[in-house]
Hints:
- The chain has 196 residues and is an all-alpha fold.
- The protein folds into two domains: 7-56, Homeodomain-like (Arc Repressor Mutant, subunit A, Orthogonal Bundle); 63-195, Tetracycline Repressor, domain 2.
- The chain is built from ten helices and no strands.
- The chain has helices at residues 7-30, 37-44, 48-54, 58-63, 66-79, 86-98, 105-117, 119-143, 154-176, 183-195.
- The termini are far apart.
Amino acid sequence: MEKPSTLWDRSRQAVVAEIVETALNLFAEQGYEATTMAQVAAKAGVSQRSLFRYFGSKEDLVCGEQEALGELLVATVEAQAPEVSTWDALRAGFTTILTASDHSPERVLEISGLIFTNASLRSRYFEKRLKWQRSLVPAIEKRMGIESGEIPDARAMGVIATVFACVDTATELWVRHGGKADAFELYEQALAAVRG
Length: 196
């Protein structure tokens, strides 16, 4: 059973959400590179020290929720019935996290656009995604009937890396199409081509 959140947890989440919203508005108004952490803190009404307690860097203002989404991805994959294929379990995981955001589709498009057009953000994003991939290995090995060892299995890692590459390809194309294309359809096209 999931532990109920405390008033402090809910207050912290509200503050974090407000800071992120403030930062994204500033990035939209004056550009990501031109916006400083000091400006974000001032506009959000928090001290710079408090801001750095919530977010270790400017990149984390955009990519910060990736940790929680990674945990949700792993949990969703693990929760799939044993008869669900590895490919479908991973798709279910990504479907869940892509629809779990508290942001509107327009805001998700804006955030994705920032990530895919800014080198430092893209680097932080891929760094976090590599952690996701590593955390998925045991679940995928189990689903594929592979005994987990000290060194991850190449087959499990290959499947995970393929799915991530297809998701990132679909997301980047979705951004380039201005959100008009269907991201899931783009993913299916990419995966079908890879799987031949």
